[in-house]
User: Fold these one by one.
Assistant:
Number 1:
Amino acid sequence: MFKKILIANRGEIAVRIITTAKEMGIRTVAVYSDFDKHSLFTKLADEAYHIGESPSAKSYLLAEKIIEVAKKTGAEAIHPGYGFLSERGFFAKMCEDNGIKFIGPGHKAIDLLGSKTEAKILAIKNKVPVVPGTEKPLVDFSQIKNIAKDIGYPILIKASAGGGGKGMRVVLEEADIESALRTAQSEAKSSFGDDSVFIEKYIESPRHIEIQVLADEFGNVVHLGERECSMQRRHQKIIEETPSVVVDDKLRNEMGECAKRIVKAAGYSNAGTVEFIVDKENKYYFLEVNTRLQVEHPITEIRTGLDLVREQLLIASGENYHSNRKM
């Protein structure tokens, strides 16, 4: 088990990680911006180091500075929390190159699953249902228009590198597709530096169901049931609940097994969330994978009695789920 870890984050999630680490006898290192100098997490950590100005681009996104502090303090591992550098494959690679354990999946899995199109292709290869649509990024308007006609309206234009509803537009009829495409590509370019998009059939009034998974570094994967996050505003989750009122044991098991196949095929380890949408007939379709701890993870902890941060730390330190922690 680690003796000391660095938390590359701030606020509530930093406090959350520090609390569990202390319970496990692990010393913690916090990094903070000008704004967070007197924040609670800096006081709770065993050590705290200033890394830059208040804007995240000048502090919490400074990967090299964070690595420098980790090496200076002798931290054996870095927990990225959520947001900031948590889903940046290059940061996981930097940790690896500097002999520091990244408490999360490897950089190859992050990069693979971070692309919605690549993740969709992976799902198809592993016999996981996906929404009808394209599998590769599209940039040519005439091509997009023809494919949309084949799929049938309404359709959904989505940024290939997107998330959080950015670069996403619903198109109800062909007359609106050109303006919707321009808007989606412009938003995707400014948000992610990539204006490629893909198209899916728009599923009306879907349920948004996500499956929590834990995977060790020996290829063993377990799922911990579902969270429902259908109550959203502007594609941002407002209310999460578990169990879902529409998921019975059969559906839960089917989606859980699909989630396990995807992460296993990606060579994934640590905690992650596989998201699905469920239509009015309870047919489910793969949506995406979040390669980190979710903001809403505590409701799964309440339901299962597990501390997911503790599980992350155990997995990253070499815990074998198959031989020691059957679930």
Note: The chain has a mean pLDDT of 92.
Number 2:
Amino acid sequence: MEFSIENLEYFLLIAMRISAFIVSAPFFSVSFVPRRVKAGLSFVMAFVIFNTLEYEPLHYVGTIGYAALIIKEALAGLILGFAANICTMILSFSGHFVDTEMGFSMVQNMDPTSNTQATVTGNLFVYTVTLIMLVSDMHLMVLTAIIDTFEIIPLGEVRISPTMYTMMVRFLTDYFLIAFRIVLPIFMCILITNVILAILAKIAPQMNMFVVGLQLKVMVGLAVLILIVGLMPAITDFIFNEMKDMIRYATKILGG
């Protein structure tokens, strides 16, 4: 293919959407992934897409018009990557909810992937699901999703609609429902334990239920947590389906 200004314009638009997606997408946006790896992956993907897609003429006027197209492509990549990445926040919230019930809410450490404070169980959920996704090649499906968006949202045809807030409303609705479904077994066991402790406090008021209850809830929570580990593949599949739905919904909005 001969080099021309038109080809350069197409390549820059493709590279901008891919780069913005890599920066905000799960698996690839974590801090311990070297920037050179992110830049190299973005360049390779943009080069492959550039040589496989058919293009429609770009419609813009002057340098400012092309700069507007660049900004739209960057926003499209960031929104699509963020739509996929926010689904992993469900796991952090579930872990925080579990630790609050078990009494581990004050035991927090620094999460190196997001540079934020996270609870122990939250890190366990996030790392376990991430490893399962990597082993099952779900990260390749995430890359396939951004490649498919070029067929649904042609270059230069990104629509930044005010209805974008509906995506966040939908996510917040699913956020609490999915998180509560993940922690429901531990929540119910801890609730039953609290009821038993309340009954014992009435029957034997001389017992120190605070000391007994604290240790009992930790043991019950850890026992149920061990049983939940066997359900992590199903939770991973559930989170991945939610991720696909969010990307599909964001693509639909950006495509107008």
Note: The CA atoms of residues 93 and 179 lie 7 Å apart.
Number 3:
Amino acid sequence: MANLKEVRNRIASVKSTRQITSAMKMVSAAKLRRAQNAVLTMRPYALKLQEIMQNLSGSMEDSNESVFAKQREQRRVLLVVITSNRGLCGAFNANVVKETIRLLENELTPLNAQKNVDLMCLGKKGADLLKSKGYKIKESNQEIFNDLNFENATVIAEKMMDDFKKGSYDNIILIYNQFKNAAVQILKTEDFLPVKEQKSEKGASVRTIQADYIFEPNKEEILSELIPKTLKIQLYKALLDSFAAEHGARMTAMHQATENASDLLKELNLSYNKARQAAITTEILEIVSGAEALKG
């Protein structure tokens, strides 16, 4: 059994750790509320805008007229890995990195072997984890989450759209955690470009719209304006989702760490009391033994 000094030092250390994790939990809870409000406000607009774009694109006889909807042979692919800048959020970042590696080693193995798959990391932790596993990062942006707003997201979206328009990439895929609630994050893999047609429940392409709309000036011009805007909104929504999911994951992780620290403190206090009682008993026995020796 450890001596009293060692147990006291351990108790002090665990108490200090519990205070830190409890404070981090409260900070993440406050940030989560703001991030959650932002993503829940944005999500209906983004989903409806994407639905309108897919519906309109599917109703056109030639949906490949837009450069962003053009389906090309998959020769070069860009994976956009969205993680956080900070850790202490459980498996939040590790899950995104695992999914990225799974894509590289399964679906994209032939292209990856030819070095035709590039990685763009939005967030420091994803870049660090992938580099530690020997993967080369084409581009990394660690500043986006320091000031997350639509203007900064637009800059990144426009660059990806320009790369796709120039033919640098034939497919751009987003990998991120979607926010569901404080305790649950859903790992998402979405095609950013090219824009794909809306699918029915049976998987067939939707070529007709439900109502007879009058388009002004015309479908083509509306679609040419709608697609870039929708893509910017789609990336911004993914960043907001990841940001909210990060704080949810961190709050949950710190809550669990605080509870574990409390449980450990109970065990340490019990050990401390046992050690103290053993020391007192030993001293009493020594005194009694000494007194008996003097009598004899």
Note: The chain has one domain: 21-196+209-253.
